[in-house]
Amino acid sequence: MEPVSVYVVDDHAMVCDAIRAFLEGDPEIHVMGTETDPGTAMVKMLELKPNVVLLDLKMPVHDGMEVLVQCKPQIPSTHFLALSGDVSTEQALDLVRAGASGVILKTAKVDILRKAVKCVASGELWLERRYMADVVRHLASPRKDWDALSAREMEIVQGVVDGLSNREIGERLFISEDTVKSHLKVVFRKLHLESRGELAQKARARGIAPTP
Fold first, then answer.
1. pLDDT tens digits for 58-83?
2. Separation of alpha carbons 97 and 135, rounded Å
3. Predicted local confidence at residue 155, as pLDDT
4. What is the span of the domain harbouring residue 157?
5. Which class for 144: exposed (0-12), middle (13-18), buried (19 or more C-beta within 10 A)?
6. CA 181 → CA 66, 124, 167, 177, 208, distances in Å?
7. Measured between alpha carbons, how far is 92 from 136 in angstroms, rounded to an integer?
8. Residues 138 and 93: beta-carbon distance below 8 Å
9. Domain boundary residue among 92, 125, 140?
10. What is the C-alpha to C-alpha distance for residues 50 and 8, in angstroms, rounded to an integer?
């Protein structure tokens, strides 16, 4: 049986080195590489197509959610496991909605980290116990239409209502234009819409007014 291939993305080199050492102590896991720059990481992971990407959430320029939104549609067979110091239940839900296979905290023990990697590689969901009930409830009865939009997606919608271009929305939110495009694709899919004009019209009908 082939070992689980893993690619580690964290803006701290020491964290990357430590995670590599932890994971490579398990013969069933192979670390394909590590990267501290999220922009470079997005290019490399699309090339390597690892089984699992262990992805830090808080990084400069492109945070973990942006990397996930941009890359997951292009490598659907890769499982993304978010790595964080702490996340709220709503953030965990947003990550799962965006295609993540789970979240593991940086305080997790080495054996738990290895177990989580193998778990998501097999197609299962990995979450801390405190998030599990709410996420399972969401998956059993997913929110529909507008209620299914994440906080970031609603910020994108607000930008569209304000008449901003993708570049201008990106500048407002400190994210890349490509990330804005990726978020918009998800918004259109969730709302069953096809154009920015239709999105702006529907948003205003729901009481989402232009920013003063």
1. 887 778 888 898 899 889 999 999 99
2. 9
3. 92
4. 145-205
5. exposed
6. 11, 28, 9, 6, 20
7. 11
8. yes
9. 140
10. 10
